[in-house]
Specification:
- The complex is a heterodimer of chains A (311) and B (251).
- Chain A contains 13 helices and two strands, in the order αααααβααααβαααα.
- Chain A is an all-alpha fold and 311 residues long.
- Chain A has one domain.
- The longest helix of chain A has 27 residues.
- The relative contact order of chain A is 0.18.
- The model of chain A has no long low-confidence stretch (mean pLDDT 92).
- Chain B is built from ten helices and ten strands.
- In chain B, the strands form two sheets. Chain B has a six-stranded mixed beta sheet, with helices on both faces. Chain B has a four-stranded antiparallel beta sheet with strand order 2-1-4-5, covered by helices on one side.
- In chain B, a hairpin with a 2-residue loop joins strand 1 and strand 2.
- Classes of the chains: A mainly alpha (311), B alpha/beta (251).
């Protein structure tokens, strides 16, 4: 038997707690909150994808909304064409986001730093304006979903089922991220982040390594987009807009850049804070801003960095 | 003489300045070949042209029978040309062991591609063992688990040498490996390079004449973008054009 590390034990405990959450909420008669919890997990997934690009790959991408939105629109558009099965539409959503990231990344990765930020933003905005001018994509109104995707034998129309499916996908993604970070590719990616010149001098295909990272992180956003379309019952242009990219970046910074649970914690903290503050004050954004400032000043490694400090 | 690197008529200009102005140079397999010349002679430009960081305006580069004039840096490393930098280039927030292990991992012909996503890199025990051996050989056995940013400048330079050697180059380009070192560190590095004699082909750019004449099998003198003399250390030392152009004020 392999020895189970304490960190792993905490992770398993958290997973179990997250898994029984819908049952507790149902027992308390707070079913409405299952939808909110699903939303948290979906954003956690999207932010985890972005954190892979920003934190592991060292590329500050400011166009993550594009891939998030592409995933949502892929599901919505296929539904208007009569394809309802998630077994088809979700993989297509992931593939569409990955393909877009491949094309955008191949061009954008010729630049770095501020130029990379600007060019990824520009591409994402181009996609936003293209989509709102397309009639078949619903223009400014977006596309409503007739129903949720079907995922036989599961029934996604049930809120708790959608929550569990999302939780499972997020967990798989976080486990994969752990494996990836320790793999040869992950080590090479760390090398690229720390010293690109040296990696090139060692003969590594630096551009390929970065492009793979960009595509993988964006594909995860595509999956999150497909889930959000299901949760919201629509694909909306606001999901493609640059403020969405900004919000995902804020989640990553808040949660911890380059920390495996950074994206997840950031998403939960930001959306949770907005939800709670939204009930007691009209100026919730002001207090969220203060919280962000506090994290940047006092916990530069983010919320996730608070309990991995000893490493 | 078995020529490993052959350079003919190589030219490169920046604006109106011909930094490399018709260089002819041959580096034989197995030798330590020193490249000397006054500041601004074009030594680093020549290293850039050989490593592929710059492409020439005219002339050819032959490496082990292959024309590499237009090849990318990436291709040249794969063919066996590895360089070190005048300014230290390591992975600052990785351990010395991981620095060298990444250099070992880069050898695709031995391990295959680095685009492997699932199996932990630490499962490749042979990579780690080789990295340890290489650190021992450059005298860093006691520091393997330290971060590269926490060790001294001299140790970082020794680390760089270990990394460059870990790619198993056929030709090692060393651009002023003693730059910024104290006398003791410099002596240590000189001994390390001397230990490569007869097993590793090296093209060494260096300012310190004592070190050059101690290490080099042959010396080439670069002045204003041209090689004005090439030969054994004693031949170059006595060469009249070299004495007037370069060594005159030192000897």
């Amino acid at each position: 038997m392999k020895e189970v590390r304490p960190a792993t034990r905490i992770e398993v405990a958290l997973l179990v707690a997250a898994a029984v959450l819908p049952l507790i909420l149902q027992a308390l008669g707070e079913d409405y909150h299952i939808g909110f919890a699903t939303r948290l997990l979906i954003f956690a997934l999207a932010a985890t994808g972005l954190n892979f690009i920003v934190g592991y790959g060292g590329m500050v991408a400011f166009g993550h909304a594009a891939f998030f939105g592409i995933g949502a629109y892929a599901v919505a558009l296929m539904m208007t064409a009569g394809i309802f099965s998630a077994w088809i539409t979700w993989p297509v959503a992931v593939a569409a986001a990955a393909l877009a990231a491949l094309l955008i990344g191949a061009v954008s990765l010729r630049t770095r730093g501020v130029y990379f930020i600007m060019i990824t933003l520009a591409f994402a905005q181009m996609i936003y304006y293209s989509v709102i001018s397309l009639e078949f994509a619903g223009g400014d109104d977006g596309l409503s979903l007739e129903q949720r995707s079907t995922l036989a034998p599961l029934d996604l129309a049930n809120d708790a089922t959608l929550y569990w499916v999302t939780l499972a996908l997020l967990s798989i993604c976080l486990i994969a991220l752990k494996r990836l970070a320790a793999s040869r590719y992950g080590r090479a990616l760390t090398g690229v982040r720390q010293n690109e010149t040296r990696m090139a001098a060692l003969g590594y295909p630096v551009q390929h390594i970065k492009l793979v990272c960009f595509v993988v992180g964006s594909a995860v956003a595509g999956l999150a987009g497909a889930l959000l379309a299901n949760q919201n019952g629509m694909a909306s242009p606001s999901q493609l807009y640059w403020t969405q990219s900004g919000m995902l970046l804020v989640m990553v910074i808040l949660g911890g850049v380059g920390q495996r649970f950074g994206g997840m914690l950031g998403a939960i903290a930001l959306l949770g804070l907005e939800e709670v503050l939204g009930r007691v004050t009209e100026h919730s954004h002001f207090y969220v801003g203060l919280a962000l400032l506090a994290v940047v000043l006092f916990a530069p490694r983010g919320l996730a960095g608070l309990w991995t400090r000893q490493k | 003489m078995n020529t490993l690197l052959g350079i003919a008529g190589l030219k490169r200009h920046f604006g109106g300045l011909w930094a490399t102005n018709g260089v002819d140079l041959e580096v034989a397999a197995g030798e330590i070949h020193a490249l000397i010349g006054p500041n601004g002679a074009g030594k680093t430009t020549l290293i850039h042209l050989i490593s592929g960081a710059l492409l020439p305006d005219a002339g050819t580069l032959q490496f082990a029978g292959t024309d590499i004039t237009r090849r990318s840096t990436h291709d040249r490393v794969a063919l066996g040309i590895t360089r070190s930098y005048q300014i230290t280039q390591v992975f600052p927030h990785l351990s010395l062991l991981e620095n060298v292990r990444l250099a070992v991992q880069s050898r695709r012909r031995d391990w295959g591609s680095s685009l492997r996503f699932w199996r932990p890199a630490s499962a490749d025990v042979r990579m780690i063992e080789e990295a340890e051996e290489r650190l021992v050989r450059v005298g860093l056995a006691a520091a393997v688990s330290q971060l590269a940013c926490d060790v001294s400048h001299g140790e970082q330079r020794a680390l760089e040498l270990a990394m460059a050697l870990a790619t198993r180059p056929r030709l090692l380009l060393l651009d002023e490996p003693m730059a910024g070192m104290g006398p003791e560190e410099s002596e240590h590095m000189t001994r390390l390079i001397a230990s490569l004699k007869n097993e590793q082909t090296v093209l060494l750019v260096e300012h310190d004449m004592d070190i050059v004449f101690r290490l080099a099998d042959r010396v080439s003198v670069l002045v204003s973008g041209r090689i004005i003399a090439s030969g054994t250390p004693s031949f170059v030392r006595e060469h009249p054009a070299v004495r007037s152009a370069y060594l005159g004020d030192e000897l």
